[in-house]
Amino acid sequence: MSSKILSAVAIATLGAAGSLAQAGDWRHDPGRGYRGRGPDVDMARVVDVEPLVERVRYRTPVEECYDVERVERGPDRTGATIAGGLLGAVIGHQFGSGSGRRAATVAGAVLGGAVANNAAARSGGYDDERVRIETQCHVRDEARYEERIRAYRVTYRYHGREYVTEMPYDPGPRLRVAVDARPL
Known about the structure:
Elements: H1 2-23, E1 40-73, H2 78-93, H3 99-124, E2 129-158, E3 161-167, E4 174-179
């Protein structure tokens, strides 16, 4: 019977030593920071984690385009018509005599003006007016908003008491806390 007790004690001792070896001491662990005198570390249970959200405003350039109708006028044919009419009048004046000369001058002016007007219209490529669609664009700044998590309000329980702190990350279900026993 004493060998059973001795075996149970040996197994319990080995189990406890194994779990202590796995846990390690944070002051001697090179990846954990402080390695000298300081507060002891314990674990507390996280009760609630609330993200603290802030609304951030930023500006984004937005290009807006729209179509505009432009009316283009054909080339001015007035000068060509007058010059053609004068030339036709001079040529028509060369024919006939008396009232016939007057009629030939008027007919030459009308015919010369008409020919010059038609020639000016053909050289311009289109008649009096043409509608052209033109795209116009401009850039304006548009205000946009984005919600970002600024921090986390963490409520945790340690030895029956609840504490609240702000952290830059969500700690998960357990939180490391520093335990410092100082006389009051």
